[in-house]
Amino acid sequence: MSDTAVAPSKEKTSFRGNGGVRGWFGRQPTWVRAIVTVVALVLAILLPYAGDVPLIGPQIVTQGIDWPSSLFNMSYYVLLALGLNVVVGYAGLLDLGYVGFFAIGAYGTALLTSRDSLLYAHSGWSWLAAAPVALAITMAAGLILGWPTLRLRGDYLAIVTLGFAEIIRIVATSTPNFLRGDRGFTNIPHPPGQGSDGKPIFGVTDATPYFWLGLGVIVVVILGVRNLDRSRVGRSWLAIREDEEAAEIMGVRTTRFKLWAFAIGAFIGGLGGVLFAGEQGFINSQTFVLQFSILVLAGVVMGGSGNMAGAILGGALISYIPDRLRGISDPFFHTDLYEYRFAIFGVVIIVIMVLRPQGLIPSRRRAMELKDREKEVAPQ
Amino acid sequence: MAIIGLIAGAAACNKDTSSSSDTASGSNCGYKLAYFGALTGSAANLGVNIEQGFELAINQYNKTKGSDCITVAKFDSQGAAEVAPGVARNLVADKKILGIVGPPFSGESEAADPIFEAAGIPTITPSATRVSLSANGWKTFHRAVANDDAQGPAAAAYIKDNLKATKVFIADDQSAYGAGLADVVKSKLGALVVASDKTEGDGKQTDFSALVQKVTSSGATALFYGGYYTNAGVIRKQLTSAGWKGTLLGGDGMKDPGLSKASGVAAAVGTVVTCPCSPPEAAGGTFVNDYKAQWNVDAGTYSDVAFDAANILLQGIDAGNTTPEKLNTYLSTINYKGIANTYKFTSTGELDPTLIKVWAFKFDQSGDAKSDVEIKTS
Amino acid sequence: MDFSGLINDFGPLTVTGLAQGAIIALFALGYTLVYGVLRLINFAHSEVFLLGTYGCLIAWGWFGLDQNSKAPNFGAMLAYMALGLVVAIVASGLTALAVELVAYRPLRRRNAPPLAFLITAIGASLAISETVGVLTHRNQRGVPPIIQARTVITIGDTHITNLQILIVVLALVMMFVLDRFINGSRLGRGIRAVSQNPDSAALMGVNKSRVISLVFLLGGLMAGIAAVMYDLKIGVTKYDAGFLLGIDAFTAAVLGGIGNLRGALLGGLLLGVLQNYAAGLFGSQWLHAAAFVLLVLILLFRPTGLLGESLGRARA
């Protein structure tokens, strides 16, 4: 039954020779690419004002939730998707408990800054001071999770990471004094900065600055991950993902690079958590549920695992689709579609994956690799 | 993404039509009151109870005015703290909103109330009972029920004086509400407590056989569960099928017919819940029937408080307080006799302590909790 | 830490844990069967179970039974049990087939990467459970008292009820039947063949699509039985019941060695009992955390579970 017809020859050639937007982009000289990138970035920065664009704007912005807030939500989902993409897409380690790192980043920030924290007498830091420490803790957690689980393959790793996230949630719920359970941490400080009028830039009523902050962090993360992916680390991940034993034999230190993937993934997830805590000002254990991890994973794969553009698109969509459905009635029964958001979303996921099994923006490198090992991969 | 595009297109104008207030006429009209809280999601039941009580009050007000004077605005937070800020910012962007009933839960209150505070819109929560909420210095915060500190001593007094139980088992679901309540009850009962346990929260655990075993073997004749009716119904059912004949007690979070729907009426009969509220039928008036007529279901927990909260805000608007600031100032002056209670707020937005009444309600054959006695704590 | 509590209640905790574990084991079979053949986690299996829990409730509802009904007499009980089982099995079985048809088959045709299957299964799971959630207003639904729990055996302080015996015995019987079916029948041979080497099996004339459907169906049947037992033991069901117990069941399958039928049974029973012990020792809030810690520890020493992976391979 193996369906060998699926082997389009175009994948043999370099992607620059291909048609489509990406092929075109690849063929352009550097200055054109720079301009296109800058324009894209400017458009992203202007996104909070999308609602003012005639005709198209109102179709894009969310109805039942403040549009800049929705954009901020997208920004941390995109961060999570980028981080998970390193673990799942690059290194090929299936992580079902990625929300754990998000939680550690958020809790690290809260522990160091909130007046509810046991440590407050010693710390009581600002958000900016707490962020690097929280990120260091998250990275350490990535290593701690990574180290004992490196022997595990595929689905065993999946259930252990899932368990890891659940343990974090349960510990957060069940330690009423340390992580404060459902009571949570209040008064987590916002990021610093004052506008010219003396008001803080990062207030509570306008989420736009938070979105811009998130966007800035995303750009930095993209640049960092892009460099890593093109370095020895990235090539080692590729080797590990495709054939761990062969990689080991060829001298790739698989353990070390898998740990790298975990730590970097954790770091990016932690960034999302730190931003989230800074914007919310309040966190409790209810947020860090398992469904969250699964959603982010769905975003990464839906967008195109192993490909940053895909992860960004997927991450944005998993946040945007449910938010966009908020406050909208269906034309027939006039019930709020938001109640159906996950049911609709589930169907959308199936449709996308069936139509584009490699994701919306497939990874080119993966596509080329997959061709070689079709039989092995396709569970016929 | 064609599907999403279609939906977006169909609904683009949807919201604007509902918010038009051209039909409003008369003095002090054309404003909105908002409900902020869960309408969908797993916490929706309590939210819908409150929203319906709130909307009923406004419908009745509009009827007496003879026009669509005040518009209902609904904001669905799902009761989730991570969702609440975005929805709250959406709310404060609507400048016609003068006051808010909600948020119903304490967690979302922590996340959303700072935004309402910054916008200066007064809120009256009918059910967020976390004690620390009033300690944030929020000027717009008002609580129309007693906080968690009031219920615990009353529940303990009921167990001691009315139930006369000598062996009590304490358990809670680790929610801020449930754990707080159970801790107070535990400390007030002192030596009467034979053992205790904790469970996971609603929707996280369904097999309570270990808890059931602990309760049974402890010899307790009463179990106080700090938590909500969802878990409590399952626990009651599993206790009954394990042959435990003692009394289950709890706070207002368990005061919902959903408890007996899960456990079956026969098992639920005799379950006692305390509530810092008066029985709706005691208030007289036609609320119980009106609610049923409008929504075709019985009024649930806090429907009456939400009804009162909405009426307080409506009364303020009627008196000419047509900006959020004026309405907020007005709230500090009221002394309003509603159907569930008499309302007077302290400077921190708490209900005046002298007005707090705690009642015990008991599940009977109808499957709902009916008023039993008023508990005197002193 | 409450060691005296654990020791005092050791017997009862073991018995109730075994009953819960038997349900988990039946549920876990679905994960293991699909994994054995496709090497994929069927995330939507939790919803296969979920529709079973609702299926039998709806069937009993046809006869006016709800949570407030009186327990039926013995003859009626047998009839209701049979009806409930049949309807639940049909509901779960059909759901499993539908999931395969919608979320798996189109991807197999397109040679999709394994992660894609995981995600469509997640999509199917979301779509089903959320639709149930909307239709039931996310309320719990109480179960009629078809079997009145009654102590039949008493050993010291340990009371064993008829329901507990029924659950454990039924699980063991089903496991035995399934084991015989896989290892002894012609269709079972096909399953083993595909799980050992899909391509060779296809060359030998095994209809792979049919085998895969069969595996989904078998998993659905077991989940249907587990669903009825769950209803009777827990007493309520809800739109997220499948997701919640699904994590336990998946854990159990991995614990025993995913792809291994006997491993699923062992893993399920072990998990059920140990969760109860952990609840006795540390408090009920830690029972899931304890399960995961145990899982990590076991996988550290036995990276492919207690009994190792095998549906058709080594053991068959």
From TrEMBL, chain A:
Entry-linked Pfam families: BPD_transp_2 (PF02653)
Species annotation: Paractinoplanes tereljensis
Chief place where the protein resides: membrane
Keyword Coiled coil assigned: no
GO molecular function: branched-chain amino acid transmembrane transporter activity
Localization terms from the record: Cell membrane
Cross-referenced CDD domains: TM_PBP1_LivM_like (cd06581)
UniProt-listed InterPro entries: ABC_transp_permease, LivM-like
Alphabetically ordered keywords of this record: Cell membrane, Membrane, Transmembrane, Transmembrane helix
Signal peptide per UniProt: none
Its membrane topology: Multi-pass membrane protein
Residue stretches spanning the membrane: 31-51, 71-91, 96-113, 125-147, 154-172, 210-228, 259-278, 290-321, 342-361
Domain of life, source organism: Bacteria
GO terms under cellular component: plasma membrane
Name of the protein this chain belongs to: Branched-chain amino acid ABC transporter permease
TrEMBL record, chain C:
Pfam family name, one: BPD_transp_2
Record keywords, A-Z: Amino-acid transport, Cell inner membrane, Cell membrane, Membrane, Transmembrane, Transmembrane helix, Transport
GO cellular component, one term: plasma membrane
Membrane topology: Multi-pass membrane protein
Protein source organism: Paractinoplanes tereljensis
Protein family (similarity comment): Belongs to the binding-protein-dependent transport system permease family. LivHM subfamily.
Protein name: Branched-chain amino acid ABC transporter (LivH)
Classification via InterPro entries: ABC_BtuC-like, ABC_transp_permease, BCAA_transport_permease
Membrane-spanning parts: 20-41, 48-65, 77-103, 115-135, 163-182, 211-230, 250-274, 286-303
Broad class of where this protein is predominantly found: membrane
Taxonomic superkingdom: Bacteria
Localization annotation: Cell membrane
GO molecular function: L-isoleucine transmembrane transporter activity; L-leucine transmembrane transporter activity; L-phenylalanine transmembrane transporter activity; L-valine transmembrane transporter activity
Annotated signal peptide: none
One GO term of the biological process aspect: D-alanine transmembrane transport
PANTHER family linked: BRANCHED-CHAIN AMINO ACID TRANSPORT SYSTEM PERMEASE PROTEIN LIVH (PTHR11795), HIGH-AFFINITY BRANCHED-CHAIN AMINO ACID TRANSPORT SYSTEM PERMEASE PROTEIN LIVH (PTHR11795:SF371)
